[in-house]
Amino acid sequence: MAADNNKHELNIMQRCCVGVLWLLCRTVAVTPRIIRYYVLQEIIYFVMHYVIRYRRGVVMTNLRNSFPDKEEHELRRIARRYDSFLAEQFINTLSVTGISSKRQKRYMSFPGAAEYAADTEGRDVVLVSGHYGCWEYFTAVALYDQGHALMSIYHPLENSILDELFLRMRRCENSTLVPRDECIRYYIRHRHDGRNLSIGLIADQNPFRRKGAYWFRFLNQESIFADGAEQLAVRFGMPMYFAYMKRVRRGIYEMYMKKLYDGSETVGDHELTVRYARALEQVIEDCPELWLWSHRRWKQIRTPGECLH
To answer: pTM for the complete prediction?
Structure first.
């Protein structure tokens, strides 16, 4: 199954740039762990938090609106921890460049892998996650779940050089990267290829505004969610799981699964999206610094004619 092709046609100069950037990322990946996480990460954190104050206004506005009951000093503590996590996430992203499957398993473990495999045996499944924890480790689920080939859905970048670089960095054994707009077509073409599929989506980004969009209450704010995961699960009768991570220590995470839908239950419109939003909201409230607060998630405003769930 080949689909992680970059639609951008790169010229020789661009390919050289990708090669140089790849080598730089690979250099970081093979640097001793203590250097990456206790020297480079601290330098990045210092620059982000104290020098450039990376998107400080966006982060604090999002935190104040999401947690109106928290004191200002508590919100600032979350913001400091978030900046430290974001520096760690930068190192995490580089650390998976060109590494072996064995080493990738050391970065992310899956304690419930056996139970999950037994529960999903013989069925295609939908996995939804969020920008919570180390989302770049998400494809590692394919290393534990050999009963399914992972379709990892991604949003292509406008910059062709960075798009190609991230495609190369995110490739993983037993998984295929599929552009978001090709997701359903790709699944229909390959669903009967003799191997069950897992469709993995990170579904908490700010989606394109559509006429008659449906809104949800999420982190104390009116929010739009993409409903592609729900449509796939209901249309094809696939179980749907919420995949989330717990941070063990710097660069080390555990993945867990929560079943949102069994593939046959009768559900109303938007019900699975609500379940996903509530599950994501819960893990964010439990450990808020692990979510992507510097993203302008709530820049769109609901109009009077649009429904609020």
So the answer is: 0.91
